[in-house]
Amino acid sequence: MTTASPTGLQKQRLLTPGPTAVPEAVLLEMAQPIIHHRTKQFQAIFAELSKQLQWLMRTGGPVLTLAGSGTTAFEAAQVSLIEPGKKALTIAGGKFGERWQDIYQAYGVEQVRIDVPWGQAVRAEQVADALAANPDVSVVTVVHSETSTATATDVQAVAKVVRDSDALLLVDGITAVGTLPVEMDAWGIDVLVTGSQKALMLPPGLGFVGLGERAIARLEKVAPAGYYNLDLRKWLASWKKTDVPFTPPVSLIRGQRVALEMLQAEGLESVWARTAKLAEAGRAGFAAMGLRPISESPSDSVSGAYYPAGVADGAFRSAVRDGHGVHIAGGQDGRGAKWKGKILRISHMGYVDAGDTLAGLHAIETELANAGHAVTPGAGLAAAAGVLAGK
Questions:
Q1: Which of 21, 66, 71, 152 sits at a 20 to 30 Å CA gap from 192?
Q2: Which domain holds residue 320?
Q3: Number of structural domains, the chain?
Q4: Does residue 3 lie within any of the structural domains?
Q5: For residue 110, how many other CB atoms are within 10 A of its CB?
Q6: What is the pLDDT of residues 199-221, one digit of tens each?
Q7: Could you report how far apart the first and last alpha carbons of the chain are, in Å?
């Protein structure tokens, strides 16, 4: 439920790092009458979407469309590709890297864990050392853009290291694909996962799994622990026939096709450049307000900063939302850090433009002043506007 201004005309700007804003054209497409999924009409839509997803991930291999969130898609990759009796090398530096560790723990898979401090990125050398010490590692999991810490990992360097082993690299690209440069085939990524509700400008409900040649070969040897969404063999077999094995969220698939048409019209390199500029502006705005960044390796998908002393997270974000119509995110707790109530985050993914970013910074700056933080009025906006103007 949105909170209206006294006039009822306050715009709502969704700057949370998922779900993100959905363009009107996509909403209108999803409002079209439902169609049956076992028809040539649906198959034509699905075939087009599959090609668009290959374009998006920069791959010539299959990209499977699963009903579920990004977590569903990543769990499916995890359980479908781990060889029996072998280890998983799991890398965590935030809430979502820890989630992939928790999933393997739930399935009883032995792990070699690399835990880096929140706000830092794993180095390729650390991965190489762990693989050398554990030749029985079957898969490596890594998060490209760790949403909880606004941190990006050099996945290209990690992929090069993993490629020299027999292990498969499973990349969480949920807030990277469509935001950061990602070259699945060129970098040698075996599995790339993303979700619909981030940079792909759709409501939650679709998860996507790109499969490289080594991953496809592994699928033939591994009997996954799951049945429905979690058995990638079923999804791959249907994909080859331009079909899905189970009833799909038809309206979401229609909407995703339109959203990707919009990204194609802009051009992927242009999308990356636009997102990077917004992220640079956001970080400059935070710095000008005297806010300390949370990441030593910042991602362009989401920016985060620590609250100044004396600012209460819940009251602050409510004031930003209710007073300005701007929705931002707070922090999360995990094994590696306790950031709930200590940080704020804003998204630069998908259907966000310079006006949204500036409006968000204005709201944050205003409410920081109202909370007693010493900030020069307009400082954050001026710094961000300078970046956007190329100064």
A1: 21
A2: 13-21+268-388
A3: 2
A4: no
A5: 15
A6: 999 999 999 999 999 999 999 88
A7: 39
